[in-house]
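Data deposition worksheet. Section B asks for the primary sequence of the deposited chain exactly as it was used as input, without tags or linkers unless they were present during the calculation. Section C holds the resulting structure in token form. Section D is free text for depositor observations; keep each observation to a single sentence. Incomplete worksheets are returned to the depositor.
Section A, Depositor: J.P.
Section B:
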Amino acid sequence: MPTPEITRSLSRRAAFRWTAGAVLGTAGLVGAISCSSAAEEQATVDTLTTHLRLARRDATAATALTALAPELAGALDVVRAERTSHADALAAEIARVAGVPATTAAEAAETTQAQSTTPKPPPTLDELKSYLLESQRGAADSARNESGYRAGLLGSISAACAVELEVVLA
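Section C:
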């Protein structure tokens, strides 16, 4: 059975409507993506800044605790060095995401931390362990919401904090 040939003609007016609709739809989509990207970027910077503060807090606590527990100096130095390394990596990623030099991002986070904390007595070993547990869980939770390098960075931080708790300070 032969199939009937259907011919449709598209008027100039209809073609113009289709083209205008496609252009406006594309512009709207690009605008929506741009807005959500800025909001997502700010949320990422906020999350990473939180983890940067935790890393610095943990490194400072390990350093302060060394004076109270000199027998743990080697283990505490490992914690301090690793958490300082985490802080440096987080500062670099914040700078990359925010599009600012790494020194500017690090200085901003340090200023915020310095303003928000008052001098405290050195923590106990149990307090340091609770800090590390908080950092480990927070990094693991944040890693689930990220992708790519940031997910790997936060997952690595979480794993390192777990090792510090279970092996280094055990």
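Section D:
The helical segments are 12-68, 73-98, 102-116, 125-144, 148-168.
The longest helix spans residues 12-68.
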